[in-house]
Write a sequence for this structure.
């Protein structure tokens, strides 16, 4: 079964609002990554947070990691229409043999 | 920008045809992966390789096969395509330095009629 579960499955907001997506996973991890996918395209890496980190920032992105709850969140602040995409979390764990396991994704729609 | 390329981007073929999806990367990465993704759905790992002459099956069973004769190339082949193979196929790579980040190609969308 897949390691990561994301919620919500779909999120629709207005430009300028913040978007929060959550990811839960089942086993201990080395790191957790977030990726973005525009419709019909490949995935693009956004940010990686290691198991000993609790929060990380990159531009308008803020990622948190709570290893006790086995969960992570991705916050996009001041969203723009160009942020419309699907967002996936992916876990890297020792018991996965170096393979990343992806969640089912959150489809974000930002309306102008 | 990732230097990983997939061809073709789109392919529509009839049942029973043999197809090869190409994936090439110019980053010298040892680890390469094939994921299968249905529209709006999660990615499923179907094949991976940790170097030349090394290939392994992923978590999702697939009738496709792969080869890794050169570091740069990781083609995926379907000997006899069926409508159930209709999907998006995504190739990715990761370096030995292992920042952990996967670099993805743009994908090959396969439709089997």
């Amino acid at each position: 079964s897949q390691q990561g579960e994301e919620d919500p499955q779909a999120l629709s907001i207005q430009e300028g609002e913040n978007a929060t997506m959550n990811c839960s996973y089942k086993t201990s991890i080395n790191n957790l990554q977030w990726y973005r996918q525009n419709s019909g395209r490949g995935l693009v890496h956004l940010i990686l947070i290691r198991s000993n980190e609790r929060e990380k920032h990159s531009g308008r992105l803020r990622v948190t990691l709570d290893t006790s709850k086995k969960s992570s969140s991705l916050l996009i602040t001041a969203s723009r229409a160009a942020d419309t995409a699907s967002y996936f979390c992916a876990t890297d764990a020792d018991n996965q043999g170096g393979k990343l396991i992806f969640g089912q994704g959150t489809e974000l729609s930002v309306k102008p | 920008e990732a230097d990983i390329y997939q061809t073709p981007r789109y392919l529509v073929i009839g049942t029973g045809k043999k197809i090869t999806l190409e994936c090439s990367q110019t980053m010298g990465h040892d680890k390469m992966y094939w994921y299968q993704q249905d529209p709006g759905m999660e990615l499923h790992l179907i094949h991976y390789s940790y170097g030349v002459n090394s290939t392994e099956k992923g978590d999702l069973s697939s009738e496709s096969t792969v080869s890794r004769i050169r570091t740069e190339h990781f083609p995926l082949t379907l000997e006899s395509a069926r409508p159930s193979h209709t999907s998006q196929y995504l190739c990715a790579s990761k370096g030995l330095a292992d920042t952990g980040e996967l670099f993805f190609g743009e994908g090959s969308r396969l439709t089997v009629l």
Q: What stands out?
A: Residues 52 and 68 of chain B are 5 Å apart (CA to CA). The two ends of chain B are 34 Å apart (CA to CA). Chain B has a mean pLDDT of 92. The interface with chain A takes residues 2, 6, 31, 33, 35, 40-43, 45, 48, 50, 58-59, 88, 90, 92, 99-107, 109 of chain B (CB under 8 Å).
